[in-house]
Amino acid sequence: MVPLNTIYMNAKKKTNKAPTGHIHLTWAIFCLLFLTVGLIVGYKLREWKATGRNAYPAQCVNIVDGDTIDIAWIYGTNRLRVAGIDCPESKNSKKLRDQAKEYGIKSSTLLKIGKNSTEVATERLLNQAIVIAFPNKTIERDTFGRLLAYVEINGVDYGAFMLENGLAYPRPEPHPLKKRYFRLNDQAQEEGRGVYAWID
Asked: C-alpha distances in angstroms, 11 versus 4, 14, 62, 172, 196?
């Protein structure tokens, strides 16, 4: 027969053992949380790298006109000039009158097209997630201090879209998409789209 004090001591030892099931559950929860945080951080880093070292995700927070927007991105809020295109002015100005004279149309007509370009920019870009890509793979600015970059939304090149619809002109400065942009402009001119619908 086992003495009562031996039974008592054995029972006490059992009750002093750590609850291994609880430890395993706690450890599993910790690992799961650690993995979740890691996945979130990894996703954010991947998101900010975007599609290449010269491309960055951003959000369009304001429309100035058809070729100039304000963006919020990794480096704060900046004004951006869309690379490779020039939209008609959306305000009556000397530049607008010079453009109208160059293309042989009334400045009032060109002003309407400029306002239409601004409206299209608003519809397509405002408050939307976009990707900006710098033509020469480094952050670039124009003479006014604005960022100079291509803009994409849902995989579509915004500058190319404006050109093929006759809502912008291709700029003469060299950049990687210059030849493509001039081809799109030629097509818009041949088909009488946008501003070219008003040019004889």
From this structure: 11, 5, 73, 90, 95
Q: How many CA atoms lie within 13 A of 90 on its CB side?
A: 18
d(CA 4, CA 175): 93
State pLDDT tens for residues 141-161.
999 999 999 999 999 999 999
How open is the CA angle 7-10-11, to the nearest 5 degrees?
A: 85
The tokens 């190319």 sit on which residue?
160
Q: What is the pTM of this model?
A: 0.72
List the beta bridge partners of residue 70.
Answer: 62, 79
The residue with tokens 């001039």 is 182
Strand spans (E) along 136-181? 147-153, 156-157, 169-170
Structure tokens at 53: 């070292």
Lowest mean pLDDT among 17-21, 55-59, 161-165: 17-21
* Torsion sign over Cα 132, 128, 119, 146: negative
Determine which of 19-28, 52-61, 143-152 has the lowest per-residue pLDDT on average.
19-28
115, 73, 113, 111: which is closest to 95 by C-alpha?
111
For residue 35, give every residue at least 6 positions away whose Cβ sits within 8 Å of its Cβ, in sequence order, or none.
none
Q: Return the CATH number of 52-197, one of 2.60.40.1120, 2.40.50.90, 2.40.50.100, 3.30.1640.10.
A: 2.40.50.90
Give the phi and the psi of residue 161 in degrees, each rounded to 5: -60, -45
